[in-house]
Design brief:
The protein has 134 residues and is of the alpha+beta class. Helices cover 26% and strands 12% of the residues. A three-stranded antiparallel β-sheet has the order 2-1-3.
Length: 134
């Protein structure tokens, strides 16, 4: 973990605590990969970190499926056809699930860009795998 994240509660060793083996599986809802994930993101130290990453990833995916004036049910239909879901594994009952917020995500566009900024929480950033297009 980099020093820039020090003190951020998402990365803190409290609350849910550090949990080895946490991963977030990115699932292509179009079915192109079948039941296999598009990718598996590793390197999360805390459940809060994995949950925040997954939540923002799905939030971004839902908003990318939205066009101006689109009704919530149409946003969901488009997301289920073309979007990506994120599944937190290794957190048991504490894992964030998209179903818990999907209706809200579809009903309203993210106002704060940070709601969609999963890249800042991506643990691969520290490994030098971050895309340079931010």
């Amino acid at each position: 973990m980099s020093d820039e994240n020090e003190g951020d509660p998402i990365f803190a060793d409290r609350g849910f605590g550090r949990v080895p083996g946490l991963v977030v599986r990115i699932m292509d809802l179009s079915g192109a990969n079948g039941s296999d994930p598009v990718e598996v993101v590793r390197g999360f130290d805390t459940i809060a970190h994995a949950n925040a990453f997954a939540r923002r990833y799905v939030r971004d995916s839902v908003d990318r499926c939205r066009t101006p004036g689109m009704a919530a049910d149409a946003v969901l239909e488009t997301w289920f056809a073309f979007g990506e879901d994120a599944e937190v594994q290794g957190a048991g009952d504490d894992a964030w699930r998209s179903a818990s917020e999907l209706q809200d995500f579809a009903a309203r566009r993210a106002v704060d860009p940070e709601e969609r900024n999963w890249r800042v929480l991506d643990p691969r950033r520290e490994d030098g795998e971050e895309d340079e297009e931010e």
